[in-house]
Amino acid sequence: MRSALSRPARFAALAAVAALALTACSSGDDTPAPAATSSDTSSASAAAFPITLKNTFGETTIDKQPERVASIAWGNQDVPIALGVVPVGFAKANYGDDDGDGVLPWAFDALTALGATGDKLPKLFDETDGVDFEGVNDTTPDVVLAAQSGLTKEDWTTLSQIAPTVSFPTVAWGTNWRDMALVDGEAIGKKAEAQAKIGEIEKQIEAALATRPDIASKTFVYTAADASDKSKLWIYTGVDARVQYVEDFGMTVAPSVASFTELSGFGGTISSENADKLSDADILVTYGDDTTLAWLQKDPLLGKIPAVKNGAVVIVPDATPFAASTSGPTILSIPWGLDQYLDLFEAAAKKVK
């Protein structure tokens, strides 16, 4: 599966990526203003350097606009790609890669539009056992993007010896899609372009929600349920980027989530014996397949959750590109899967009692 978009929408998205440099400003009268050239944009971006960005581990100073951009962890590569910059290397997809090429479909589509597939595909870093320091070093980058990541201070220090490394601002795996775009975008001299892209996506979300009115104001809990071990339930907190994305739909995290002392950082596990405390969640979100709702409802503990009992459950097909697009939302992945995601929430919202 290479795209969740219809063919016309897909080509429109590709055209938007390819045309990033052709921006223009409208004047107060009917006379069109001269279009900004790519050299104008590059000059303005370069003039912003040097810059210093703060993160959890310290400061990152980038002396001049990077030409060779590398990224690690989930999703960071989507920022430069969406802004028309082909990375020299990025993390190989290790979740949701349905065809085994190491590149998720929205990134592949955008790279295709930029002429960067086949022999020109960026180097893919193997992060099966952690950060691929050797792979990153081999690409001789000018900057390493990791605004959304789980870097340790040791990781950041090691990467910083290779090139200036932009890490997460506050919490590991807690950088939402907007902040990822702004932090990574600023690091490559394209913060203004990143902000414009954010504005476009916010309008897309607003328009999509207007046709799905039942979603607004619902409460939710985002979980991961395991049919092989029904004694516990993983819950993602409001720190997690996927949860913050759902909040963009006008929904709020069920207040009961904050009452679980077992949770810390972006999430944690609770005993299924305490699942009935989630009675204030209108909708439960979890990963699974066509069998998931049935076994949840039959379970003597998890089946007591009102959202489960009512069938007000959003089941994200596990280990698929769609699951990857919603678990680590970016300025590239959101447009790709937005309508499918909201359809699931609208269907669940209609079952809330």
From TrEMBL:
**Gene3D superfamilies, per this entry?**
Nitrogenase molybdenum iron protein domain
Q: Which domain of life is it from?
A: Bacteria
* Stretch forming the signal peptide: 1-35
Residue ranges occupied by any Fe/B12 periplasmic-binding domain in the UniProt entry: 68-349
The record, for Pfam families, names: Peripla_BP_2
Location of this chain's protein in the cell:
Cell envelope
Q: Does the UniProt entry include the keyword 4Fe-4S?
A: no
> What are the GO cellular component annotations?
outer membrane-bounded periplasmic space
Q: Keyword set for this entry?
A: Signal, Transport
| Keyword Transport appears in the UniProt entry | yes
Under the heading SUPFAM superfamilies, the entry gives:
Helical backbone' metal receptor
Which GO biological-process labels does this protein carry? Answer: iron coordination entity transport
The text of the family note is: Belongs to the bacterial solute-binding protein 8 family.
The protein in question is named: Iron-siderophore ABC transporter substrate-binding protein
Please report the organism this UniProt entry assigns to the protein.
Cellulomonas rhizosphaerae
